[in-house]
Design goal:
The structure is a single chain. By secondary structure, the protein is of the alpha+beta class. It contains ten helices and twelve strands. It has a five-stranded antiparallel sheet with strand order 2-1-5-4-3, sandwiched between helices. A five-stranded mixed sheet has the order 7-9-10-12-11. Strands 6-8 form a two-stranded antiparallel ribbon. Helix 7 runs parallel beside helix 8. The longest helix is centred in the middle third of the chain and has 36 residues. The protein starts with a helix and ends in an 8-residue tail after the last strand. It binds adenosine-5'-diphosphate (ADP). The site of adenosine-5'-diphosphate (ADP) has 22 residues, from helix 8 and helix 10.
């Protein structure tokens, strides 16, 4: 078998190096990755990554498999490769001394997932540590300096209760997030009447809205919109968006929820329900908009924490909408309020053209 035919058949960028350190076969993937002119060259002059050189050199010497990481940039993106070096025994020991197969596997997604997991754990720990530290401090004070002071007890217990509630909300949102992420690939099959779900959700939000002295206006189309959905999750979407509109946009004193039927939505290319939650409050600086649905991303951290936010509400909304094959658009400007638009595929009306 020809060495060149062999590397051409490998579905990864790869090359072969012989015992004289010469690259004697290279496939097109490796040429694209490492540059032309590899064939016939000494590998040490062509592959400049120290970890890779080290792995290759030791593999040539001790003939045992070696793995190294190799980093490259393609189209402005950082790419991580896991490079495997495997010794190939000579077919005829009298005529050749064998060589090493060097194969490059793109593991960028694995590296990114690992980084995301680490960031997530760091974020959760940080979010929990703040209320925990406060609780521990208050307990210490109640046991020590404020031991016999009834008034201080009442005040501190009040603060401790709100810190414990913050942790409770965080754990609740983390569980919801994990639940919606697990289900994201399972398509909802329950046929539901959207207007009913929205009306009952708005009713249960009444106390929150009233407490904030906000007027909630609902403008729903007359058509009965049916869709295949998970009704609890649709409730959660509307709840999170309205709670945010009240929390952050409440200064505008008014929140509008609109529902309309779209015979053909250009982004989904199908019939859709268009749900909008509009507030007239402080708005969001457009620089934050692209990242707003990331876990723990807050446009205004101080305000979110002060208002009891966990930074997970919109991440949950995004996953639910993904599961329903929908889209979300956020439009906002500072001082101009915000419009959160959710577009969900729905069942075409029987009399629609
Ligand atoms: P949080 O628990 O902090 O409210 P979310 O994921 O629900 O987390 O929202 C992320 C961030 O988006 C919030 O911290 C807030 O800064 C911003 N935000 C969300 N909705 C609005 C809104 N209607 N008006 C202004 N800012 C908003």
């Amino acid at each position: 078998m020809q060495a060149q035919a062999f590397v051409d058949a490998v579905p990864l960028p790869c090359l072969l190096v012989d015992q004289t350190d010469r690259i004697y076969a290279v496939n097109s993937g490796a040429l694209d990755l490492l540059g032309q002119g590899l064939l016939g060259s000494n590998y040490a002059t062509m592959l400049r990554a120290p970890a890779l050189l080290d792995a290759l050199e030791t593999c040539l010497q001790d003939k045992r498999p070696k793995v190294a990481e190799y980093f490259s940039t393609e189209g402005g993106q950082d790419i991580t490769y896991r490079v495997s070096c495997r010794f190939i025994e000579p077919v005829d020991a009298k005529r050749d001394a064998g060589g090493v197969l060097v194969a490059f596997e793109d593991i960028t997604h694995v590296a990114q997932a690992g980084q995301m997991r680490r960031d997530f754990v760091a974020n959760v720990s940080h979010e929990l540590r703040t209320p925990l530290t406060a609780l521990m401090g208050f307990i210490e004070t109640l046991r020590g300096p404020a031991k016999d002071d009834g008034a201080v007890h009442d005040r501190f217990l009040g603060i401790m209760e709100s810190e414990a509630q913050r942790m409770n909300r965080l754990v609740g949102d983390l569980l919801s997030l994990s639940h919606v992420e697990t289900e994201e690939r399972v398509r909802p099959t329950q046929k539901v009447l959207l207007t009913d779900i929205l009306n009952s959700t708005l009713n249960s939000l009444r106390p929150v809205v009233d407490e904030a002295a906000v007027t909630l206006e609902a403008a729903f189309c007359d058509e009965p919109i049916y869709l295949n959905a998970d009704s609890d999750q649709i409730r959660q979407v509307l709840t999170n968006l309205v709670e945010n509109a009240v929390k952050y946009g409440g200064s505008g004193a008014r929140v509008t929820v609109k529902l309309s039927y779209v015979a053909r939505d250009p982004s989904l290319r199908m019939t859709a329900a268009r749900l909008q939650v509009i507030d007239y409050g402080a708005g969001i600086d457009p620089i934050h908009l692209p990242r707003l649905t990331e876990r723990f991303y807050r446009a205004d951290s101080h305000r979110s924490r002060e208002l009891g936010g966990t930074g997970l509400g919109l991440a949950i909304v995004k996953h639910i909408i993904n599961r329903h094959r929908g889209r979300m658009q956020i439009e906002s400007e500072l001082g101009q309020g915000s419009v959160f638009t959710v577009i969900l595929p729905c069942i075409p009306l029987p009399n629609a053209e």
